[in-house]
Amino acid sequence: MKIMDKETMEPIYDQRVNDTLAGLLSGETREALAESFNLANWKSLDIYMRRKGFIWDSHNQTYIPAITRIDTILELLIQNKDRLLSLLMPESTGTIPRYAVSGTPKTQSLYMSDLLARILKEFSESQNLKQWEVVEGALSEYFKRWGLN
Q1: Alpha carbon distance, N-terminus to C-terminus of the chain
Q2: Quick check: 140 and 101 in contact, CB under 8 A?
Q3: DSSP letter for each residue of 5-19
């Protein structure tokens, strides 16, 4: 009995796999199929199918080749490569970015913890920045990261 080849991850279509897929396609449940194969329960059928290179697709209520799921995930990662890299490895040139925000300056009061206020003050002084520049930069980075362009 050959189990799934770990290197190629190719699904193995034997008689039980084909019967299982056909049964599910015709509307049989996993429980009924497991009983017809003299298995203890549907979990035993699930283990068998996984060893043959299939995973349960709950949306379609059938087994699909595991490679299909991996291909889909890889394709999604490749399509979003630039976004993932920017999230995982933010650009750091050693200099603090400064943002030119258009519009008329306006006074805005913000409530924050005394610890955060102290950190903002100390950071601004150490980097020779105004506190509003730090807040504008932080908000710009936040909006950029979370999807507001």
Answers
A1: 56
A2: yes
A3: -TTT------HHHHH
- Digit-coded pLDDT (tens) for 67-96: 877 777 888 888 888 888 777 776 666 677
Cβ count near 21 (within 10 Å): 17
Crossing angle of the two packed helices 81-88 and 66-79, in degrees rounded to 10: 70
- Residue 8 has φ and ψ, to the nearest 5°, of -90, -20
> How far lies 116's CA from each of 17, 32, 140, 144, in Å?
60, 61, 18, 22
The two tokens of residue 6 are: 């770990």
DSSP category for residue 70: H
**In contact, 12 and 53? CB cutoff 8 Å:** yes
In degrees, rounded to 5, the angle at the alpha carbon of residue 122 between the alpha carbons of residues 116 and 127 is: 125
Does the global pTM surpass 0.70?
no
